[in-house]
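Annotated sample (chain length 152).
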Amino acid sequence: MNTGPDSTAPDSTAPDPTGAETRQDRFDRGLAVLNGVNADAARRVLDSLADVSPELAHQIVAWGFGEIYGRPALGPRDRQLLTLGILTALGGCEPQLEVHLGTALNVGLTPQEITEALLHAAGYAGFPRALNATLVAKKVFAERGLLPVEQE
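Output written by the structure step:
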């Protein structure tokens, strides 16, 4: 973006005259939140989008984590449980589900809680989506040496 003296575009890194956060402040806050729950995911998302859509990477971090995920009313554990349910219900989000399954484990959800949530989703999203999500969970659990999952 051209932010020189002849530019009419605002400098996105300059402090807002009203005292609001800068674009970089929001990104930095989002990166801190994301790194707090899954540092590997932060680097992977930034790297994977760097040559095609760095703006999408910026928005995922700044808005998705800095503005939404970092809100105080729900903790990371609750947010991850919701995210697993939503991604399962949407279907076709297996790469994102894999990342969030790892993050769910990072923030304290157990394999038993995760498989129970995915089973619960079958009643609302259907068996194919719950099955696909469970198979992604199986992959993540295997990578972490968490198989077999004990059932209650």
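Annotation: The longest helix spans residues 23-49.
Annotation: Residues 1-16 have pLDDT under 50 and may be disordered.
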